[in-house]
Specification:
The complex is a heterodimer of chains A (204) and B (167). By secondary structure, chain A is mostly helical. Helices cover 76% and strands 0% of the residues of chain A. The N and C termini of chain A lie far apart (39 Å). The model of chain A is unreliable at 101-126 (pLDDT under 50). Chain B is elongated, with a radius of gyration of 44 Å. The chains are: A mainly alpha (204), B mainly alpha (167).
């Protein structure tokens, strides 16, 4: 997890670029955020090429909206918020099932979650740990964007929940609820895997 | 937006809710509430298992593979970053360094002037003029007086001419 002092430093780098035209400070920012932003976008948008286009667009927005950055804020929250808004706009334009934060809370979203049941017989009786991670990634892809986003930002990107609440522009309680919904879907899969592993070791 | 933490001053002797436990993940271990909860876990097996399951679920997310974007994206982004600062006022970029340099030079010149003044004063204070030097100085002073006299006479002549013309 990036420490608060690291995040403050990143904010200072951006201010140096914005106020003094320090391109090297901007390059340092890119080194810190280019890959994490891409991985975030890829897992939210489900597609590598789309995520690459999004990544470029997000950086260009960061550059062109630099005057809107508040010096007291964290650059990470601001950058991820721009990426989050891009994803929301992308899904709206797609005119498909909108995985917006509103959808995560409505009945349709909850019904969709209920369809992913772990009570049914699992085809994955003998799976290795890396396959388990792939399985979890598959479950995440089926979740509404808001829930998927909370899980990814907290686990993979190690962003605190308060900061995720700023990124999603949602109350902290809503963010925690979304995380709980993600864990309710993922945890039984882990438990089942561990049980299967245990019983297969006993048999061996 | 005012974000208020949910988990504050809760009674940790009862089993916390799932969301309360999730929020606790962001608290440092030194936090009073979290310490009390972890102590509770040492005697409550069910609570301990829930906490361990939660951590295992989050650890799994950390292990997801990292992917690399197309390298050309970085180059294009940097082009935009450069283009944005090309319009940056050059005078603003340089002002800071010049003003700092100028202030430094002023102090340097002031110091040099003081040193030279002191050196000159010191030299002439202690210097004992020879007879020859005194004579030379007196000759120079005399010549300056003579030049002043010539200038005065020229000035009087010019003034008289003007008065005659006007008359």
């Amino acid at each position: 997890m990036k420490t608060s002092s690291e995040k403050q430093e990143h904010g200072l780098w951006f201010v140096q670029y914005r106020d003094n035209g320090d391109i090297q400070a901007f390059e340092r920012l890119m080194n810190a955020y280019h890959k994490p932003l891409f991985n975030y976008l890829q897992r939210i948008l489900h597609n590598k090429e789309t995520a690459e286009d999004a990544l470029q667009e997000v950086w260009i927005k960061i550059i062109r909206q630099k005057e809107q950055y508040k010096d007291q804020g964290k650059f990470s929250s601001w950058a991820y918020r721009i990426a989050h808004n891009y994803c929301l706009d992308y899904f709206r334009k797609q005119s498909s099932r909108v995985d917006s934060k509103e959808d995560a809370e409505d009945e349709e979203g909850n019904a969709f979650l209920d369809r992913i049941s772990t009570d049914s017989p699992s085809p994955y009786d003998q799976i290795e740990e890396k396959e388990l991670i792939q399985l979890v990634e598959g479950i995440l892809m089926e979740l509404p964007m808001a829930i998927r986003e909370v899980y990814l930002l907290r686990t993979y990107h190690q962003i605190p929940f308060k900061e995720i609440a700023e990124i999603q522009d949602s109350p902290l309680g809503t963010v925690l609820s979304r995380m709980n919904q993600a864990i309710k879907k993922i945890q039984p899969v882990i438990n089942k895997y561990l049980q299967q592993n245990k019983s297969s070791k006993k048999m061996a | 937006m005012n974000i208020k933490p949910l988990f504050k001053d809760k009674n940790l002797e009862t089993h916390p809710s799932a969301e309360q436990m999730i929020e606790m993940m962001d608290l440092p271990d030194e936090d009073k509430g979290k310490r009390a909860f972890l102590n509770q876990c040492s005697i409550d097996e069910e609570q301990k298992k829930d906490w361990e399951d939660l951590n295992a679920c989050l650890d799994l997310g950390k292990q997801m593979p990292t992917h690399e974007p197309d390298p050309s994206i970085r180059a294009r982004v940097l082009e935009n970053a450069y283009a944005e600062i090309e319009n940056f006022p050059a005078r603003e970029k340089k002002t800071t360094s010049i003003s700092i340099g100028f202030i430094g030079w002023r102090w340097a010149w002031a110091a040099l002037f003081l040193i030279m003044s002191w050196g000159t004063y010191d030299h002439f204070k202690e210097h004992e003029f020879t007879t020859q030097e005194i004579q030379q100085l007196e000759n120079e002073i005399s010549s300056i007086y003579e030049e002043m006299e010539w200038l005065r006479e020229d000035l009087v002549y010019d003034m008289n001419e003007e008065n005659e013309e006007t008359a």
